[in-house]
Amino acid sequence: MKGLHGSSKSDSLILTHGDSDGVCSGAIAKRAYPDSDVYFTSPVGILDELELANGYSNIIICDIAVDERACKKLYRRLVELSEISNITYIDHHPLPKKCWDVDWLHHDVNVCSSELTYKVLENRLNRDMRRVAIYGAIGDYYDNTPSVREWLHDWDKRNLFYQAGSLIQALIYMGRNYDFKRKLLAPLSHDVIPSEIPDLPELAKEGSRLEEMLRIRVKKQVKSLDNLAYVIDPKGYMSKSAIYAASYGRRGVGIAAEYRYKKQVYDMSLRSRNGKADLNRLLRSIAPRHGGTGGGHASAAGARVP
User: Fold this and answer.
1) How confident is the model at residue 110 (pLDDT cuts 50, 70, 90)?
2) Which stretches within the chain are classed as H helix?
3) What is the Cα–Cα distance from 195 to 270, expressed in whole angstroms?
4) CB 270 within 8 A of CB 243
5) CATH number of the structural domain 210-305
6) Which of 47, 253, 265, 273 keeps 20 to 30 A from 244, CA to CA?
7) Tens of pLDDT along 141-182?
8) Fold category of 2-198 in CATH
9) What is this structure's pTM?
10) How far is CA 261 from CA 233, 242, 267, 270, in A?
């Protein structure tokens, strides 16, 4: 569990994902509950984190997909906690079949978690926090929803995309550096623009430089099949590698795969350019047949297969 907290336990707990949408969702929730403890987690790790959640009056969970294998255990734990805590579970990933029907689950696959978090907690927020929600929407490719399109009219879109791009590039460059994310989430919760957050512009610049090198590398290495293009061990950002594989392979779907020697598995990132294939449904079905796991969104998903 990687957290942002003080020396004494707070009244509220926020659990959120560590990508750009999750960080923005966490910042919005932090603004709504200023004295909350914030921890970064994942679909695989959330059950362990919830074992430490006793005693909080409010528990807010953002952008954490429900793992099909742990769905029942997670539900039981949350119901147990809901007897003494106010639970707010906010997510936009497709749910497993026969999932929960509870009033504390706020779920919509058509928007990003940041937009949904703002809407769920709107009565605790000032209107300017919509800007942070827009950053999250851009980072998760959900910037064309009706609400985000409407909110964009309140800002100079050019500056918004610059700020969002800087934030996203820095986050991707820093990877699983949770110390950085802790420092980043606090000013974001006060609507400080990313370009004014210390060190972030330089990190974004370095991330963009590495991405450009990756783009050229994928262009040379990509292989194309009938319906998809792929690159193996791209030595760089997996999600971006999948995007460039689809682009330079001139196929609707791009795949980047990287072998993890210590765990003896392939980690894969998939991106769809035309929306004809539901990658989430495909991976939820195919990956388990090969002893792996997979899922995500219809046009952006990932898998781990031995």
Assistant:
1) very high
2) 20-32, 46-50, 71-82, 113-120, 130-139, 146-152, 157-174, 178-189, 200-221, 238-249, 279-289
3) 30
4) no
5) 3.10.310.30
6) 265
7) 999 999 999 999 999 999 999 999 999 999 999 998 998 998
8) inorganic pyrophosphatase (n-terminal core) (3.90.1640)
9) 0.91
10) 12, 21, 11, 20
